[in-house]
Structures are given as C-alpha cells and as structure tokens.
Amino acid sequence: MGLIVQKFGGSSVADAEGLKRVAARIVATKKAGNQVVVVVSAMGDTTDELIDLANQVSPIPPGRELDMLLTAGERISMALLAIAINNLGFEALSFTGSQAGVITDSTHGKARIIDVTPGRIREAIDAGSIAIVAGFQGISQDTNDITTLGRGGSDTTAVALAAALEADVCEIYTDVDGIFSADPRAIPAARKLKTVTYEEMLELAAAGAKVLHLRCVEYARRFKLPIHVRSSFSPLEGTWVVENHPEGGTMEQAIIAGVAHDKSEAKVTIVGVPDRTGVAARIFQALADNDLNIDMIVQNVSAAATGLTDISFTLPKADGAEATTVLKKIQGEVGFASIQYDDTIGKLSLVGAGMRSHPGVTATFFAAMAEAGVNIEMISTSEIRISVIVREGDLERAAQAAHTAFGLDSDQNEAVVYGGTGR
Ligand code: ADP
Ligand code: ASP
Ligand code: MG
C-alpha cells in the first residue's frame, strides 16, 4: 500500500464522459490498496473561456477578481469528480486549494507556494476517503485572498501536495502518452522518452514544453520526488522524471533529450541606449519592480561614433504592453531613442545533458537551421540548452529540422494526441 497523488489535466476531464473515465481510474488505484489524493484542473478550455469573458467586460481586469473568477473552474471539476466517484460506491471529498492548505504569496496570477499544510487531506485519506483537490489555486498568507499559480499551475499543486504528504509518487495524467522528444501536436515523428532528468525537464519546461509546469519540476527536484507523466486515455507506461537516467540508456537519449518550441514570447528592442555603466541595471530594475520576467537578452556592441547601443530582450507576450509602458516612463531619464515591439517571433530550444561532453552539437544545430533556410535573430545557451529566436512562421519547420538532424525522429507512430485543443 502506498500514497499516490494523481493529477488530471483539463483535457482529461473535458466532459461528463471524461469525468467518469477518470473516476474509474482513480477508483482502480484505490481498490489496489493505495491512499489516493487527486488534483484536478478546470474542464477543457474553461480557464481560457473565463479569461475571454473577463476581457469582454474590461480590458484590464483586476488581478484579485480575475483569480477569484478563474479558481471557479477548478471548483466545478473537483465537485463533479467527487460526485462521479461517489456514484461508483467510493467516498470522495473535494477541497479548494485553501481548504487543502496551499498557502501562497500575494502575487495574483502567478503566486508562489510558500507552504502546504494538508491537515484536512491527511484526515480525509486516513478515514478511507479519496481526497480531490482543486489545482492551480491557493490562499495568500498576507491578504487571505484567493490566488492562482499561473497557467498550467495544477501540476505544481500536485507535486507540492505530494511532497508535503510524502507521497510515493506523483502521477501527472494528460492527453499524450508521456514526455516526448518534441511536442507531439506539432512533430508527428516525436518519440516517447522513457526517462528525463529533472535538469533536462527544467530546461524543456522553461523553453515552453508545457507538458509540465516549470515550478512543479523545481519542486520535485528539491524534494527528490519522482514524477510519472502518462496518458489518462491509455494504459501505457509514460515517462519518468528522475534525478539520473538509468544505466544503459540509448546514445540519443544521452546527448539530446528533445526540442521545445514556443510562440508565447515577444521581442522588445530598446534603440539608441547610451553605453554607460548602470544603464542596463536601471532598465532591468524598472522591469523587475513591476514583476516582469525577462527571458533572453542581447546587447550589441555600441557604435564608436555615437556611443549608443541597442538592447533586445524577450518576454511573455502577455507582459508586452506593461513592459512597454514601464520603459516609456524611464525613457527621458535613461535617454534612449525609441522602443520597438515585435510579437511575431518564435523560440526554438534544443535540450540535452549530453551537450556538456559532446562538442559539435552547436555546429550540427546551426547547419540544420541553415539547410532549412531559417534565419536566426537571437541566441542564448546554458550548459545543456541552445535557444534561438526565429520568425514565428519558420518555427515549426525549424523544430522539425533540428529533430531530424539529431536523429530523434521515431518510426513507431507513438506521438498520439488523445484530446485537448492545444489552446
Ligand atoms: P493538461 O491539460 O493535461 O495539463 P497540457 O496541455 O498542459 O495538458 O500539456 C500537455 C500538452 O503538452 C500536450 O498535449 C502537448 O501538445 C504539449 N507538449 C509540448 N511539448 C511536449 C513534449 N515534449 N512532450 C509531450 N507533450 C508536449
Ligand atoms: N486550469 C489552469 C489552466 O488552464 C491550470 C491548469 O490546467 O493546470 O492554466
Ligand atoms: Mg498542463
């Protein structure tokens, strides 16, 4: 007997049929003698639909109210799932994030979990019930207001609860059979990975592979908690996210884990920045003070004649308008000429722990881009990742070219997409 935390994503509980299928799966785990805690997302595209509604009544909905609205999505699915399980003759109790003890800071829309105090969950499972917890939400320690953890945050609820309850495993059920060498929705030849390391998955998630929320991977690594990503639509074994690949992994697996592509970022270029000490600090401090996260940064060499340079950076499109406003406020003080905003870019990343010890990966990657006729606008690297910014229209072709160049294409037709709209 063990304690298993299972998380079901929105496409797994998109309708009544989905809820019943998931309920049966949960009951099977319980029948096998386990204590079961379930984290559930909002049904289908509910969260997107609620955001659209909010935007129809106001162009800038207040963060507190938007969080209150969005958390309703998970309350609907948790109660329906508990009802479906009760109908199968098993006791299930649903809990909001706040009732489950998910304590966060007060940053609406992207709150961080500070503590998890799952007393009521422990009581429920010790009494033989199945506990169903609303994902993606918590309560702020300072303000007592309801918060959300950022898009895709139910994964993080699941891992945080699993860590707090010292669960044996956290199972993330989704609409594909595991973690693949590329997004199966875009690259049909993607191959399913048996294992991926925390380190590789952190890079993939940060690079836009939304199969796992970035912070859930950080959490799992900190607590050495194994994550099993698998499909709620098939019985197949999925992908294990672990500390190290087991001995005897294949060569490809050792060098490159996969590629990730991301259309959610925009590029801001600050033109004609005086090349003086402290200027970059002033610019990025102003952005940080407004909780704006920056991804890639490139600064050109300044032109000798003018002493001026350009600084480009990328950030989530959703933060683009606010970043531009913040920069305009400091334009006079910093003395730059203008701001350019471009939201038709795409980011392609190649990730693999084997990059450390295999020279030539960069050369192969750039040769593949050249052969595919893809122009590269920005580059950034870590020890185990290369990311490039390209035109948005070139992105999927570039991803396919890199995937093929590193021998990742699979001939098994395993990249099955069971549900979801990819939204
Ligand atoms: P859920 O609703 O279950 O949380 P998500 O839509 O958040 O599901 O995440 C699953 C989706 O992630 C898949 O449908 C797939 O399109 C996408 N994805 C992106 N990169 C990968 C990858 N490397 N492996 C698997 N899925 C990926
Ligand atoms: N429902 C939330 C979202 O769509 C959280 C999640 O699904 O993980 O982002
Ligand atoms: Mg998700």
UniProtKB/TrEMBL annotation:
- Pathway(s) where this gene product acts: Amino-acid biosynthesis; L-threonine biosynthesis; L-threonine from L-aspartate: step 1/5; Amino-acid biosynthesis; L-methionine biosynthesis via de novo pathway; L-homoserine from L-aspartate: step 1/3; Amino-acid biosynthesis; L-lysine biosynthesis via DAP pathway; (S)-tetrahydrodipicolinate from L-aspartate: step 1/4
**What is the protein named?**
Aspartokinase
What does this gene product do? Catalyzes the phosphorylation of the beta-carboxyl group of aspartic acid with ATP to yield 4-phospho-L-aspartate, which is involved in the branched biosynthetic pathway leading to the biosynthesis of amino acids lysine, threonine, isoleucine and methionine.
Superkingdom in the source lineage: Bacteria
Family (UniProt): Belongs to the aspartokinase family.
Which Pfam families does the UniProt record give?
A: AA_kinase, ACT_9
**Listed PANTHER family:** ASPARTATE KINASE (PTHR21499), ASPARTOKINASE (PTHR21499:SF3)
For the ligand (ATP), the binding residues are K7, F8, G9, G10, T174, D175, R185, K210, V211
Q: What is its EC number?
A: 2.7.2.4
GO biological process entries: diaminopimelate biosynthetic process; homoserine biosynthetic process; lysine biosynthetic process via diaminopimelate; threonine biosynthetic process
Q: Which reaction is recorded as catalysed by this protein? A: L-aspartate + ATP = 4-phospho-L-aspartate + ADP
ACT domain boundaries: 268-344, 350-423
Annotated substrate binding lies at T47, E74
